[in-house]
Design the sequence.
């Protein structure tokens, strides 16, 4: 620790020598030091810790940890601390030659003098990067193809063929029509074609039969399901919160429906994106546009006990930042949450500038009743209102015609009870922080902190000379104080009530007896009777559940009538030791001199007062009070009618609770500060909303930039990334491999594009606005961000239409088929596997949209959720045959089949699914009850269709499964299998019956049916069946 | 999978028969030529299958000590001060406050700082083994293997909520989408088992906080994900054939699927088909191997008794423990774990939830340790006796420890449990080349902070990988432009833990 001191002395000594010199000049004295010692890490190439010292603005902005240079204050400037060696943990430069004392002194002087940095001395200016993806999208010229035999259906082919020609390769032949319709159907709708669709296409001799097929499939409502599911991977869609509690989100489907519909109506990708990122901020935002913001409500929610909500709000915000950056920009911005990017020109400061856009988001649940729900609600509500007015008129009639007579009778016999004198509180105090306030009516209202237990001590005086009993009223007040107690359920427990008298002669305790209350809480065992409040036991007490919302009275008799001397004070102690906030909220204490036995007065003091007043002398408001009291508490018939009304009110149908989870803007902007090393508790500099400097300029609409500015910035023509990333996503889906392999990383560590010009041509075709496109030579029709148009362009290319077979020679030269000398064989995604089974067997329920469904799941699998909280009730009827994308996705207990086939876990964005190949997949397809049911159904159909020979039957099943006819070798193998299976089935009729799902083993033809089922099961398990070829 | 009592051919006979028939038939329109080329194709297929098998065994970075790992994971966080780390001073200070300076910067899940008091432990600690390791009276059986245990009393983690803490302990970071330790090891080393998955998960007790994220392969291909073995029904979901499909029929079916896939492979030459054929064959073998694995009828009565399969469950009011049958389930899981290791399963996780004793700690902990203590000790002895302990790393782990403070949730004065404590906790390892019979690290007088040799979760992972011959900095997977590690950006191997 001595070193800084020594150093300071040395520096001071040097400073003494300096005055003779001219003032420090940045360009002459400082910049060379920076250039020599700092630029290699904090210059144009690298910005370690987010710090850059060659540009004035960047240098003054500072690095990840905050400002480096504090103008005029060298002692507070990190730069000085680090280069001087004052901070032993951070010595700069860490390697190489250190700064000399003179140089440090110069820097200090420069900073103390205000760090003058003439603009002329700044380096080049904005951050530039030579990395390919940050360069503007160029419109490449479509190449000419030399081989006249090659098929060029559109410019895509020209780009691909040009590359192939360089390698002396060519396109593979076009796939046959069977392959093409199956491929196109699976790619565009996620469903295999039905045999009649195959036949129609195969026999369509029109020149544009293929294009017509593409148009038909693009127009199919199943297109939105298929491509919606791709988008839901990016949106990390799920039907539950995630984390330990993993509560369900029953209305998550509203966002999913929005995605499906938006894609089906071909909402242009820019609008599709802007609505999801900032639909709430659009001028006159519609309900649908707000629903679109559900994208960023797919973040996880941790409701585990004891979590810091701010921590998980920050985590959700981080996820929103990372998802947005990866989905639209293909940037791994998540790496900069804790420190500046190791490879890409992105700083941690920029991360929090991006974070600031989302930091102001608030989660808003928007009532979103579905049409059917509204209809049924309105119906129920109508019926309820009719009944309500019937009951009301019966009540009103009774009150008008019957009640006055009954009240007169009652008044004749009503006996007001003892006169009570309310004590005059002089002091009121409470333990454990509660606050007591005496009210004008001498009652005491409790406020302030709500402790678990409390003792109230009241000192009071009274004019009474003798006292025979005390009364404690527990009161309810207005809306802020609806209950007698302060615990959540409104209860209290009066553990002990005691009275002491203090005067000149000292203190004496009043002996209480015979506590009586108007009501007490029953419970198995002793309950909470009045007597428990004076039994000397703090563990017992008087309580009033369920009548917590009305006033109560407890009376305490005194053993010997008490005579008070002048000046004597009463000290009343109200002990409440039950715990968990079971304390009184509002109360009043009174005493009486009348002889007992005293009754807990069911007639309130106010009413007693009225009754004591002769009718003629009552004030109008007294009369009204009495009428109201009698109606509500005095007359049983009125009370009965009132109860009916109250009971009916409880039955009031509730409006549908369906809500859409959306994002809206917090009215008061949250301050964003850099989280040092990503820790939300360690706050650094403030950050204003902004975009990475390496990209195109950001021009917000107003001084305070918001999400809408960000969303629009993503789609500015100058943006080099969004269009490239978007077309690459589509390309990856249709070829199984992106033109940029790393679909989620267009940064330095990502792969370079295999066909850079094709990527740019597609990007500029997809994105360019109409006027710019029109000026381009050989312009394509403007796609205007139309997803359907882009997909049509790609699927109608000769490149897409190639067959997918690999040839040994090609497999050697280009094992991953980067050059596209053929199509790719792709194992179907989990949902498409399921959907193919359901389609082939005819079980599919093709309904679109709506709440998620739950297919069968063994109970022990559902029980894996935390503390058995996951309730999985199998969907009824044909709901369980809905498409895979509707399966309820419980994050901690994902549906096993989906996970086995590489569905994303929905905890984070997934831009590219794995396509694994595992024994569990084999077991699932062979044995899972849902899939076996498909085989059973298919086998039964084949069996029931009685016409034709065995061979014809086998061919028909084969066609249903694979959309083609079997080759002779395949047919032969199937016949072999049939014969062997039949032999086994015939030998084992019980097994055959079970396979057919019946217990009647004597039915004719059961063995044949069982054999066709077993055969169907084999076909449904072929690699080809779960592969798009 | 129950063979039906029917006079039919054995599966292999049927298979032989049909295959021979199939290959010999030429009248069905299938020329022998096609078969010749198909047989030729088999050589190509084998090469394709080898190339595309993600679980093919691979050598480590350097000579390994451990080959297999059994991770016994207790979700919920067992109390270190009641089990592993005796604190007489804490008992003396029972009921006293902590200095404000210690509470100031700490965040708790449930404790209210006002009025919170230290809570002593009613447990008696005794010395065990030659090493004299002190363990709680709740762990008498573990005491009998103390000389094999490497007890770490100085673990610490970054997370104090369960699910994030469990992600941290399983994946090295408290984030979703990362692979678990078992996935990393299978990715690094492949699987030695031809008939079983390389990563198996056994559960006992009620569902856990982390759910499936405790055995996810994260961004690694799902070949490396843990496969859940069940306590009821088929040991693996969908392992059993559908009703009526006899083993012979299944065999016929899988065979036909294989042949038809081979024909397709011949036509399209896609290596994925070879992998698919391999997967179906492994599935078929698993159908026999997994039930055999789970069948304990060949284990001796002495073994079953040693693991305590038929112990009586105590009549304790312990609602978190998971209900009747847990003692047996857990004992079976431990025995199954040994059987899996014998069969080359690389990584076995034995999960039990929950140890989250915010209240009723005495009863709950007594119940849970009563369940866990005997089978775990038996497992260690059994492995040792069979010569497997040297190459099998057994790990007892959880996400964090519990507070020396009593939990006063909601200001309650009825304090019977402890809150989450990430700053110091205990765990142990045995076998797999770690140095047994030692206590590593220490905490202060009340078990609050580490005073000696801290071990971060990343350090633990680095050390475990090291035992498998893996350099934790070199075992990486490129995802979204970054080379990810189990140890994220930290972790150091702790030589003193290693024999």
Sequence:
């Amino acid at each position: 620790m001595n070193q800084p001191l020594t150093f300071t002395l040395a520096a001071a000594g040097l400073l003494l020598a300096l005055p003779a010199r001219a003032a420090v000049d940045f360009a002459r004295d400082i910049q060379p030091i920076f250039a020599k010692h700092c630029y290699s890490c904090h210059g144009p190439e690298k910005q370690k810790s987010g710090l850059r010292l060659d540009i004035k603005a960047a240098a003054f902005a500072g690095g990840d940890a905050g400002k480096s240079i504090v103008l005029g204050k060298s002692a507070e400037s990190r730069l000085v601390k680090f280069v001087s060696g004052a901070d032993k943990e951070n010595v700069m430069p860490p390697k190489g030659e250190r700064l000399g004392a003179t140089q440090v002194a110069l820097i200090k002087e420069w900073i103390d003098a205000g760090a003058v940095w003439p603009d002329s001395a700044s380096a080049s200016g904005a951050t530039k990067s030579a990395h390919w993806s940050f360069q503007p999208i160029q419109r490449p010229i479509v190449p000419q193809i030399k081989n006249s035999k090659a098929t060029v259906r559109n410019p895509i082919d020209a780009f691909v063929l040009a590359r192939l020609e360089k390698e002396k390769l060519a396109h593979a032949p076009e796939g046959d029509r069977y392959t093409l319709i199956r491929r196109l159907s699976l790619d565009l709708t996620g469903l295999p074609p039905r045999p009649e669709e195959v036949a129609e296409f195969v026999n369509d001799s029109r020149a544009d039969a293929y294009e017509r097929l593409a148009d038909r499939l693009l127009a199919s409502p199943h297109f939105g399901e298929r491509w919606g599911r791709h988008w839901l991977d990016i949106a990390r869609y799920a039907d539950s919160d995630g984390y330990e509690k993993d509560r369900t989100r029953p209305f998550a489907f509203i966002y999913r429906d929005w995605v499906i519909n938006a894609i089906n109506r071909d909402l242009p990708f820019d609008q599709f994106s802007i609505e999801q990122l900032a639909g709430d901020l659009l001028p006159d935002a519609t309900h649908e546009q707000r629903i679109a913001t559900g994208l960023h409500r797919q973040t996880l929610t941790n409701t585990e006990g004891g979590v810091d909500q701010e921590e998980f709000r920050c985590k959700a915000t981080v996820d929103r930042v990372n998802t947005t950056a990866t989905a639209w920009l293909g940037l791994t911005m998540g790496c900069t949450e804790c420190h500046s990017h190791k490879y890409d020109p992105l700083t941690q400061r920029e991360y929090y500038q991006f974070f600031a856009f989302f930091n102001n988001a608030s989660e808003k649940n928007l009532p979103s009743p579905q049409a059917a729900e509204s209809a049924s609600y309105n119906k129920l509500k109508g019926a309820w209102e009719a009944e309500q007015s019937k009951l009301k008129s019966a009540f009103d009639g009774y009150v008008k015609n019957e009640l006055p007579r009954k009240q007169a009778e009652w008044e004749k016999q009503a006996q007001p009870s003892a006169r009570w004198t309310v004590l005059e509180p002089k002091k009121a105090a409470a333990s454990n922080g509660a606050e007591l306030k005496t009210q004008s009516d001498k009652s005491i209202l409790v406020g302030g902190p709500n402790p678990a237990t409390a003792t109230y001590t009241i000192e009071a005086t009274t004019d009474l000379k003798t006292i025979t009993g005390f009364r404690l009223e527990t009161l309810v007040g207005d809306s802020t104080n609806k209950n007698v107690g302060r615990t959540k359920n409104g209860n209290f427990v009066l553990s002990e009530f005691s009275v002491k008298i203090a005067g000149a002669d000292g203190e004496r305790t009043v002996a209480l007896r015979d506590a009586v209350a108007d009501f007490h809480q029953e419970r198995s065992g002793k309950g909470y009777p009045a007597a428990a409040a004076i039994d000397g036991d703090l563990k017992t007490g008087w309580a009033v559940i369920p009548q917590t919302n009305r006033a109560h009275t407890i009376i305490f008799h005194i053993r010997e009538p008490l005579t008070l001397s002048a000046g004597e004070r009463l000290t009343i102690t109200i002990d409440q030791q039950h715990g968990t906030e079971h304390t009184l909220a509002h109360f009043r204490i009174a005493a009486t001199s009348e002889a007992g036995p005293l009754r807990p007065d069911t007639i309130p003091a106010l009413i007693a007062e009225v009754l004591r007043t002769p009718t003629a002398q009552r004030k109008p408001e007294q009369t009204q009070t009495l009428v109201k009291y009698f109606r509500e508490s005095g007359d049983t018939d009125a009370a009965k009618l009132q109860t009916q009304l109250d009971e009916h009110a409880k039955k009031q149908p509730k409006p549908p609770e369906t809500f859409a989870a959306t994002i809206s803007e917090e009215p008061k902007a949250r301050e964003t500060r850099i989280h040092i090393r990503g820790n939300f508790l360690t706050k650094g500099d403030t950050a204003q909303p902004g975009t990475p400097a390496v990209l195109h300029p950001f021009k917000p609409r107003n001084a305070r930039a918001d999400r809408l500015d960000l969303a629009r910035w993503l789609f500015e023509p100058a943006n080099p990334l969004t269009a490239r990333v978007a077309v690459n996503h589509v390309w990856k889906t249709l070829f199984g491999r992106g033109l940029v392999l790393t679909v989620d990383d267009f940064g330095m560590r990502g792969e370079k594009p295999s066909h850079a010009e094709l990527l740019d041509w597609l990007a500029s075709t997809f994105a360019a606005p109409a006027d710019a496109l029109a000026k381009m030579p050989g312009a394509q029709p403007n796609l205007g961000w139309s997803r359907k148009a882009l997909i049509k362009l790609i699927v109608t290319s000769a490149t897409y239409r190639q067959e997918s077979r690999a040839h040994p020679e090609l497999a050697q030269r280009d094992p991953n088929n980067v050059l596209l000398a053929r199509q790719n064989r792709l194992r179907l995604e989990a949902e498409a596997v399921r959907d193919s089974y359901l389609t082939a067997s005819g079980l599919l329920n093709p309904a679109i949209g709506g709440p998620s469904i739950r297919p069968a799941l063994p109970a022990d699998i559902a029980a894996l959720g935390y503390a058995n909280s996951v309730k999985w009730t199998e969907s009824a009827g044909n709901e369980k045959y809905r498409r895979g994308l509707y399966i309820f996705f419980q994050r901690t207990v994902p549906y096993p089949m989906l996970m086995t086939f590489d569905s994303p876990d929905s905890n984070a964005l997934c831009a590219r699914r794995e396509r694994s190949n595992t024994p569990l997949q084999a077991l699932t397809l062979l044995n899972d009850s849902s899939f076996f049911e498909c085989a059973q159904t298919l086998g039964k159909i084949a069996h029931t269709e009685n016409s034709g020979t065995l061979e014809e039957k086998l061919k028909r099943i084969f066609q249903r499964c694979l959309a083609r006819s079997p080759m002779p070798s395949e047919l032969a193998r199937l016949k072999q299998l049939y014969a062997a299976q039949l032999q086994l089935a015939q030998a084992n009729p019980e097994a055959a019956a079970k396979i057919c799902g019946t217990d009647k083993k004597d039915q004719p033809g059961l063995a044949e049916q069982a054999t066709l089922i077993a055969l169907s099961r084999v076909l449904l398990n072929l690699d080809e069946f779960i592969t798009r070829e | 999978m129950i063979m039906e009592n029917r006079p039919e051919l054995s599966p292999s006979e049927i298979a032989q028969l049909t295959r021979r028939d199939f290959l010999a038939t030429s009248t069905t329109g299938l020329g022998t030529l096609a078969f010749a080329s198909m047989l030729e194709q088999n050589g190509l297929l084998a090469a394709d299958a080898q190339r595309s098998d993600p679980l093919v065994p691979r050598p480590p970075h350097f000579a390994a000590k451990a080959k297999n790992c059994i991770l016994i994971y207790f979700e919920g966080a067992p109390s270190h001060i009641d089990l592993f780390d005796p604190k007489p001073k804490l008992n003396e200070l029972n009921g006293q406050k902590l200095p404000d300076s210690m509470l100031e910067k700490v965040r708790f899940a449930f404790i209210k700082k006002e009025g919170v008091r230290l809570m002593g432990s009613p447990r008696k600690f005794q010395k065990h083994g030659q090493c004299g390791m002190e363990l709680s009276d709740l762990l008498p059986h573990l005491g009998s293997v103390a000389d094999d245990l490497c007890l770490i009393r100085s673990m610490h983690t970054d997370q104090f909520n369960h699910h994030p803490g469990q992600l941290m302990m399983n994946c090295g970071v408290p984030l979703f989408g990362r692979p678990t330790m078992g996935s990393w090891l299978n990715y690094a080393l492949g699987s030695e088992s031809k008939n079983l998955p390389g990563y198996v998960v056994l559960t006992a007790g009620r569902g856990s906080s982390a759910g499936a994220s405790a055995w996810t392969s994260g961004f690694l291909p799902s070949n490396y994900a843990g496969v859940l073995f069940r306590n009821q029904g088929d040991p693996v979901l969908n392992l059993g054939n559908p009703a009526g499909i006899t083993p012979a029929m299944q065999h016929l079916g899988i065979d036909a699927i294989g042949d038809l896939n081979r024909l397709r492979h011949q036509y399209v030459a896609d290596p994925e088909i070879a992998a698919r054929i391999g997967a179906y064959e492994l599935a078929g073998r698993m159908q026999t191997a997994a039930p055999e694995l789970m069948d304990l009828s060949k284990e001796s009565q002495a073994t079953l008794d040693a693991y305590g399969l038929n112990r009586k469950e105590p009549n304790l009011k312990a609602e978190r423990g998971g209900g009747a049958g847990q003692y047996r389930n857990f004992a079976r899981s431990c025995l199954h774990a040994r059987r899996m290791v014998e069969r080359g399963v690389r990584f076995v996780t034995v999960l039990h939830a929950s140890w989250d004793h915010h209240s009723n700690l005495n009863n709950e902990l007594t119940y849970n340790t009563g369940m866990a203590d005997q089978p775990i000790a038996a497992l260690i002895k059994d492995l040792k006796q069979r010569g497997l302990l040297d190459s099998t790393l057994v790990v007892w782990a959880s996400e964090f420890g519990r507070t020396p403070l009593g939990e006063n949730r909601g200001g309650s004065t009825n304090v019977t449990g402890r809150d989450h404590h990430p700053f110091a906790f205990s765990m142990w390892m045995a076998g797999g080349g770690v140095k047994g019979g030692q206590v590593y690290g220490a905490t202060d007088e009340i078990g609050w902070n580490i005073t000696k040799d801290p071990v971060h979760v990343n350090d633990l992972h680095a050390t475990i990988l090291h035992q498998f011959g893996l350099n934790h900095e070199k075992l990486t997977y490129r995802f979204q432009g970054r080379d990810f590690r189990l140890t994220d950006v930290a972790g150091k191997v702790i030589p003193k833990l290693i024999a």
Q: What stands out?
A: Confidence is low (pLDDT under 50) at residues 1-39 of chain B.
